[in-house]
Every structure is written in C-alpha cells, then in structure tokens.
Amino acid sequence: MTRLLVGPFNRVEGDLEVRLEVAGGQVSQAWVNATMYRGFEQILQGKHPLDALVYVPRICGICSVTQSVAAARALAAACGVTPPPNGVLLTNLMLACENAADHLTHFYLFFMPDFSREVYADRAWHTQALQRFSTHSGEHARQAVAARQRWLQIMGTLGGKWPHTQSIVPGGSTRGISSSERYRLGAHVAEMRGFLERVLYAAPLEEVVALDSEAALAQWCIREPLRGDLRLFLAIAQDLGLENLGRGPDLTLSYGAFAQPDGSYTMAPGVWDGQSLHAPNIAQITEDARHAWLADGGSALPPSVGLTLPTMDKPEAYTWNKAPRLAGQVLETGALARQLADGQPLIRALWQRSRGNVLTRVLARSLELAQLVLLTEHTLRSIEPEASSCVDSRVPDHADVYGLCEAARGSLGHWLSIRDGRIANYQIIAPTSWNFSPRDRSGTPGALEAALVGAPVAEGDTTPVAVQHIVRSFDPCMVCTVH
Amino acid sequence: MREPAFNVLWLQSGGCGGCSMSLLCADTSDFRGQLRQAGINLLWHPSLSLETGQDVQQLMADCLSGKTVLHALCLEGSVLRGPEGTGRFHLLAGTQEPMMTWVQRLSAVAKHVLAIGSCAAFGGITAGGSNPTDACGLQYEGDQAGGLLGSNWRSAAGLPVINIAGCPTHPGWVIETLAALAQEQGLQAEQLDGLNRPRFYSDKLVHHGCTRNEYYEYKASAEAPGDLGCMMENRGCKGTQAHADCNVRLWNGEGSCIRGGYACISCTEPGFEEPGHRFDQTPKVAGIPIGLPTDMHKAWFVALASLSKSATPKRVKLNATSSHIVVAPVIKKTRLS
Ligand code: SF4
Ligand code: SF4
User: Fold this and answer.
1) Neighbours of A44 (CB within 10 A)
2) For the structural domain made of B6-201, what CATH number should be given?
3) pTM score, two decimals?
4) How many domains does chain A have?
C-alpha cells in the first residue's frame, strides 16, 4: 500500500489537494482537502443586509453571478419584493450567460487538455486531441477562449462588468434594456451558436438537444465520426471506458433552474434516486463539521443556525469544507443532476445503465450548453424592451430566509438571518461543498471521495491521470466550497 | 516570430480567481497569441496550464534554484497570515507549507513582483469585516505600506510590488503592465503612482467618460436602483474619487459598473471593502455628501450644486429618476439662416 498526496491540483477553480491510499494498482481510499479558508460568513456578520450584494459575488470569480442571485433571492424573501417580469428575465439571461461560459471554459480549458497528455501518445485519437486541446497550441481551445470573450460581452451590457457584477438586486436588475440593445445581444448569441455548431457539435443546437436515447446518440456519432469536439470526446470516452470511472452516489439534487415570472422553472427541481423524483426538502439539509478545521456544534446543524468558526487543532480534521447532507445522505449535484431532474431522456437512459460517472457528467454538461444558448435566444425574445426591470426594496429588522440557485456546477444556497437590521448569521452551501464533501461524523465519505475509489494508478505514478479525469469531471470550484 | 522569453509564474492565494477569469476576457481574438506577441511566456498558471501536482512543484523548485529565470511573479488574492501568523489558512496544496512562505521565497528570486487585483495589492475584500484570516496585500495592508514583504522591499529590478489594483482587475491593465515589463526599457518608478499602481490607468478617475456626466452637471440624481441619474448624491457612487479608467476603457466590450446601473465602489482603492457606510447609499452631513470629488473645494461644490440644481432642464430632471429615457432632447436647428 502506498500513499500519494496530489497537489497543487490545477485547472479547477481554487486550491485542491487529494490524499490517496493506493493498493493493488488502484485507489483504495481518498480524502479531499480544500486547502484555503477566507471566512466570508464571518466577514458578513454585522453588515447591512444589502451589502451582501457587494461581498458575495466575490466569493467566486467563476460563478459570481450565481452567488449574487442566491443572495438577491434571500434578500427578496426578507424584503417581500417580487421583481417585475423583465427583472426575472434579465437575471435569467445573466445566469444563463455565466453558466454557459462556465461549461465552455470547463470543456475546453479544464477537462479536455488531459487527453493531450503523453500517457495517451499511443491512442488513435491522440493527435486530434493534441491539435484541438493542447494548452499551448490547441486550435479549438484558442477559438473557445475567443468565443467566450465575445459571449461575455453580454455581461458587459447587462451587468456592467463580469465577474463581480452588482446589477442583480432583490427587486430585479438595475440595468434595463432597449430594443436596439436587445438586437445587439441577439447578435452575440448568434456568434456563440455559430461557434458551437461549427466546432463543439458540428451540428445544429436543435439536433443536439433532441438526442433522446442511446441509439440516437450512437447514430449521431456514426454519421460523422470525430467531427466536432463532442463526438471526439465520446470516442475517447468509449476507448478509455470513462463510463466506468468515477461513479457518484445514487442520489442527485437540483434546486431547479431559471425560475420564470410565473414561479415555474425552465429546468425542474428534484432529488433523483434512479426510480423517482422528489421535491428537495430544504429543512432536511445539514452541515457536519466533524472533519473540518471548524467548530463542531456537537452535531450536524441546519444552515439556518449553522456555525463557521475556524478551530485549527482538531485531530480528525483534514479540510476547510464541511460535510453537507440531505436527510443524512450524500448526494451529487451539477448539470447531470439537473438533467436527471428535468427528465432529459438520453441522460436518464444512461443513468439507468451506468449512473453518474466521468462520461455522463461531461455529456450532461455538453447537452446543457446547447440548451442554455437556446434558452438565451428565447429569453431575449420574451423581454419587453423599455419596460421597468427593477423595484426598490426595504430591508426589515428581523428575518430568517434563504435563497437558492443553480450554478453551472450545481445547487447553491444562502441562508440569512437578520437581527436589528443587520446580518446576524450568513451560511453558504456551494455545489462543490456537496460534491467534494469530507467524511461526516459517521465516517461516510463525500461524493468525490467515494468516486475516486477504484481509480487505476500506474506503478510510480505520482499524479494519476484517471484521478484527474474524475476530479475534473465534477467541474469543482474550491473557492466557493470553502468561501 | 521570436520565442517569448519573459517568464511569468502566476499563483493564487486568498482571492476568488476572478482576476484570472477577467484576464481571459482580454480584448483579443487570440489570447495566447497576444501574450506571445508581447514576449510573455506563461510558465504556469493555475487555470491555463497542463502541469499539475509534482510537475508544478518541480517548476517552482527550478525558479528558486535559478535554473529557470523568474521574470515576473504574479500573485492573485491576498496573503493569508492567520491564524496567529502561521499562514495555515492557506497551505499550498501538495506541499503542506503556507502559501505565504512560497510567496516570500519566490519574491526573493523574481525580477518583478506583481499584485494582481486589490486583494493582492491591499488585502481587498478578503480583509473585510473582522478580517478573520489576517489577510493583507504583498506590500500594503489597506492604505498602510508594509504587508507581507515590508515597505522597504524592492524586487531584483529595483521596483516595489506593482499593484494592478481592481476587483477584479481589468484584463487590459494586466496585459499592458506585463507587456511593458517584457520590453527592454521595462517600467520606471515614475510610471507608478503613490500607491504603486501603473499610472496609465490610475491617473484617470472613473468619473471621466461616465455616461451620466450630464446628470452630474445638474445634480440630477438617481433615487432608486435602476434610475438613470447621477449616483453620487444618493446611491454611493465614488466615481469622482476612484482612480481607474473604467468609463473610458470599458469592461467586457461595453460595460462599467455605472453603465450596469450601480455605483462605483472604488474597487481600485485600498480599503474599499470597508467604506464605513452602506455601499448603495451616500453618507451625508447636513444633506451634503461626505466624499466630495477629488481636487474640489467643498464651498465651491456646494455653491455650484445649488446653482446647477436650479438650472436643471426638465428633461434631465425627469430622466434622472426613470429607468429609461422618458423625455428626449428637443430637436433644434443647428445652423444659422
Ligand atoms: S459621480 Fe458616478 S454616476 Fe455620477 S457622473 Fe460621476 S461616475 Fe457617473
Ligand atoms: S467603476 Fe469603480 S467599482 Fe467599478 S470596476 Fe471601476 S473602479 Fe471598480
């Protein structure tokens, strides 16, 4: 048996270390460590509640809009305001813009470059992977960065700047929109569609979102093998057996994405267990700090009364992340969870066969990217230019509220208590807090910790490539995790 | 084309990664090409490099031993000194050693050291509230010189830490600073301002080029979020005091905080994270904002403000408290005859 300490683990957001126990050429146990703590929940204490809108986007530079939306929803609940329809739609546009940028960044800059590694030099697809995804010269990676830059100009218009926009407020969006601007934004969406249809899918978006079975997917691949980066990924996945790598827990969570003015969701919420879908019971969420360098309240606590206080000298602690649980259970969150909750037939079919794994996570994200661009087109058409997009809000002296949102990488929740007009407690559970959870007090490993078990490790390998695929398949964001 | 020779190592500590995400939004159709063309070789960057784990540790060892020349060390995010000076709030993954220690060591061998963003420059948002992690900047703690390296520290090239402040920092500010350093003539001390920020962007105020300047002239002020008027009087805008060119060199194609409908919170200034008042409200004494425009005498401001308020055209007054233009400018003949 050998032990490996892997880090710094890059091409994830933030700082990550993975400790592995290796026996018989595979990982037998894993511990996931988020190695940095900044203390946002402490920083927020005593602030005016609306000041949260300046602090929380700065929890994370890759999903700052999502943090703003969760805070704005909690504050809207406290203030009792409802944004006008335009405010809801503009917020959705910004969310979709950021989530799509995240999926694109993840695919081209974070995940695919690993297939350009030397260890795969003898594979039939390696030359293609190198040409397309090499971090230095990858032609498609280069085009993806350019497409991302153009796409985020939508955020320049709607949010003033990205990251760390402050135009998302409880009452809606501080940035209205005119019909000429709507036209200009539409032109940016068309550019992104062009890039995706040419380079990622080599197919129309409509064709991609309509893939509804394994047979349809197989057909679609055979028709033009390796054309487009998604087909290349699928070929690599088949060759390397990525479907057998990094199995997640058999329970997934989505809070529901893109709330509409009428209260419904574009992507339905739900906890999926392979058989049925339940509404997530928010009251059953707890966080357990037993293995974190944080005060352990003596039991797992619901976030509404959660504690975040650094406590360094705990022998059993190994990370800054607490262990979130839903009714005591480990679950996975992210694009895969959203597609399962929303009932995407292809993803549900693959789930029935092989559950959550490296292949299904990446495929779910790729399909969602196409959905997001279509959603953006649709939302732009629904906006009423020149109409009001914001109402003012007054913060009450007392409130206990929460705000939920779907980030690219999964379910995000902010729990806020206001006393005497000030923030008395603020607790955040980020998507990667769920996925990269440490063990809880009963010793149950978190989702990634369990998913790493069984990953192959070659003799003498210090940074096993299979481990890297598994870790990155979750698209982790460590700065959100620990905040 | 010549091989890029200016080696840049980029590390992240107590920040959010937002300055890197912002960097990728640089105005170019070829990000890598732009760096190459400026002579910049990115030795390693946490989001953009293939190397992970042991390979990165080897790369840093080579910089320390001098085997690889480290032309510029970029730190994004503040330095976390806590708890009790141990730096354990951030151990560099895989090394069991505080990031703070790595930054000290690498700074000693780097030709230039750059603080990327307000966290690395001054402590930034991470130093807000009770500053639970004892966060500071590389050479400043808020507006006090000192920080991790001390006020007298100079890089091998003889410069202090270059503070490319901003939250996040603008990609143009970073790339142009690196490009200047990569050139033979480099960057001279007098090209940095009193807080060691590159003057090419900090010799301007956010107020310059603001699309709300007409409202400002007449003190026609926004009252509620989303209003079109000037945000200085009521909504906390510090554009008249914040050093940055945000309204001239726009963000993400065509944005600025103010164009997005919210106040400039002066994110390029030390201590912006703790303004001592609500971010979205202007603190006032006897109805007069405390933070008056830089370089302006208070008595003059008061006199001009009351005069201009009485001269405000109806159009400007009405539009200032609306979310869209409700009164268009009158069409007048612009030529004689
Ligand atoms: S004070 Fe602010 S809103 Fe008013 S004109 Fe200046 S920068 Fe624009
Ligand atoms: S407008 Fe002000 S707050 Fe916004 S980015 Fe510029 S300096 Fe920072």
Assistant:
1) 26
2) 3.40.50.700
3) 0.97
4) 1
